[in-house]
Amino acid sequence: MSRALFISDLHLSGERPGTTEQFIRFLHHEARDARSLHILGDLFEYWIGDDELEDVPGDPLGRQVAQGLRQLSEAGVAVRLMHGNRDFLVGERFCAAAGAQLLDDPSVVELDGERFALLHGDTLCTDDLPYQAWRHTARSAAWQREFLAKPRDQRRVAVLGYREQSKAAVRAKAPEIMDANAGAVREAFRKLDVMRMIHGHTHRPAHHHHRVDGKPCERWVLPDWYERGGYIAVEPDAVRMVQFGEV
Q1: CA–CA dist 157, 179 (Å, integer)
Q2: Is the pLDDT of residue 79 over 90?
Q3: Of 2, 82, 100, 148, which has the maximum CB count within 10 A?
Q4: End-to-end CA distance of the chain, in Å?
């Protein structure tokens, strides 16, 4: 079929095997009939480096997911992967194992003559100043080089600590601070020169209509996979969101 599928915020981890099972079923069924699958960040709850793919003492979840994506790619579905705020250390080694191409954030793709901006979505949440400061640090080459040089066990302990700090910070913030900023959204439409946008990160699935410089624009926000899961399908004559039952 000439449809493209988009997912994000699966947050796969060993603690939630039901979500991983749901994802593997998705790869074998809905995704198998698509021309492309775009994963717009946070495929994993966390990723401490591509050496997780090593047999011992690597993460079997990472290998299972890479294998599933590789099978999809070999079936003729183009697999595209974008970094999220949890799995920005996914690298070329994982992508090679998964048969996936790493996408820049943001990217613009043309589907059936329409241009779509693709983002993880965290760069739109400009009101969350502490997170934006952390993002700037963690995406720097120097920070990543230093972090990846540490032993794997130390990296895992550090990431688990970051997760707890993040949960505490989220509980202390007003919900609107963690949503996309209207001005940042308008600026992204202008900068990327598009009228359609797809992103995740906020865990607030929706279809928004905007007017930017007099032009009608639409923004699709992907569902997360914590409880339900789902995807957006871009087809020749429509864009639609599909949400599953509870994971």
Answers
A1: 29
A2: yes
A3: 82
A4: 26
pLDDT at 246: 59
Is the Cα dihedral 81, 114, 208, 105 positive or negative? positive
Would you call the peptide bond into 216 cis, given omega within 30 degrees of 0 as the criterion? Answer: no
Q: What is the pLDDT of residues 131-168, one digit of tens each?
A: 999 999 999 999 999 999 999 999 999 999 988 888 88
Count other C-beta atoms under 10 Å from residue 77's C-beta.
Answer: 20
d(CA 172, CA 175): 9
* Angle at which helices 141-148 and 152-172 cross, to 10°: 130
Chain centre to alpha carbon of residue 11: 9
Is a pLDDT exceeding 80 seen at residue 172? no
Quickly tell me which residue has 């079929």 as its tokens.
1
- Residue entry with tokens 């032993």: 151
Q: Is the pTM of this model over 0.70?
A: yes
**Which H helix or E strand runs over 37?**
strand 36-40
| CA dist list (Å): 186 to 124, 129, 190 | 10, 19, 6
- SS3 of residue 94 by DSSP: helix
- The amino acid occupying position 7 is I
Residue 105 backbone dihedrals phi, psi, to 5 degrees? -120, 110
Question: What's the rounded Cα separation, in Å, for the pair 79 and 222?
Answer: 17
Among 111, 116, 118, residue whose Cα is nearest residue 236? 111
pLDDT tens, 92-102?
A: 999 999 999 99
- 3-state SS class at 102: strand
